[in-house]
Amino acid sequence: MSDLSYNQYSRLSDSLERDLMRKALSNGESVSMIALIQKAFASVKNGVKAANNYIIDVTAALNDARAKDARFSGSQW
Description:
Number of strands: 0
Order of helices and strands: HH
Oligomer: single chain
Number of helices: 2
Shape: elongated
Distance between the termini: 75 Å
Strand content: under 5%
Radius of gyration: 29 Å
């Protein structure tokens, strides 16, 4: 790659830009709505699982703290 591609003042000509766009659009992959919906549902499912696991961990930590507090609440230091 030449240094010209990093130059902020270099520009593509209109015909070269059209040619590159035409090639890029002709080689594009097809979009499957079913696959996109499945990915979206999988992402939501993973988010719900993560939130559920977080809530379970916090509840367990709070229960441990309450149990430790109950052991020491009646004693005098």
